[in-house]
Amino acid sequence: MDIETIRTYCLSKKGVSESFPFDQEVLTFKVLNKMFALVNINKRPWALNLKCDPEKAIEYREFYEEIKPGYHMSKKHWNTVNFEGRLENKLLLHLINHSYRLVVSKMPKKFKEQLKSIE
């Protein structure tokens, strides 16, 4: 999967915006201002940092060589996923969805309600 497809997919999710809050290289996707995905657009191979349930994070790392502990992130809650490797697109989209849902699930009720009202 290419970086533009990932960008389009992330932005298609409800309440998502993109920005470069750290520098001009790390593209960050946020749902209502909470990060769920990051990618360094100038570093190859391209890899996406995604939030993950801690138990599932370990399972993914053990099973897929393309999935490592989160680079410059909490190793417990984030994975770095090489999406230029052999990882199937279906799994990559699942991991993006998991990250998005995990971040939304931790939001206060008023933010969840705000997200529901977005068309």
Q: Can you give the helix content as a percent range?
A: 25-40%
**What's the number of structural domains?**
1
Largest sheet: 6 strands, antiparallel
How is the quaternary structure best described? single chain
- What's the alpha carbon Rg, rounded to whole Å? 14 Å
Strands side by side in the biggest sheet? 1-2-3-4-6-5
Secondary structure tally, helices = 4
CATH topology (fold) name: Aspartate Aminotransferase, domain 1
CATH class group = Alpha Beta
What low-confidence regions span 5 or more consecutive residues with pLDDT below 50? none
Q: Based on the structure given, which CATH architecture is correct?
A: Alpha-Beta Complex
N-end to C-end Cα span: 27 Å
Spell out the helices and strands N to C. HEEEEHEEHH
Tell the overall outline. globular
Q: Into which percentage range does the β-strand content fall? A: 25-35%
Mean pLDDT: 93
- Determine the structural class based on helices, strands and strand pairing: alpha+beta
- Report the strand count: 6
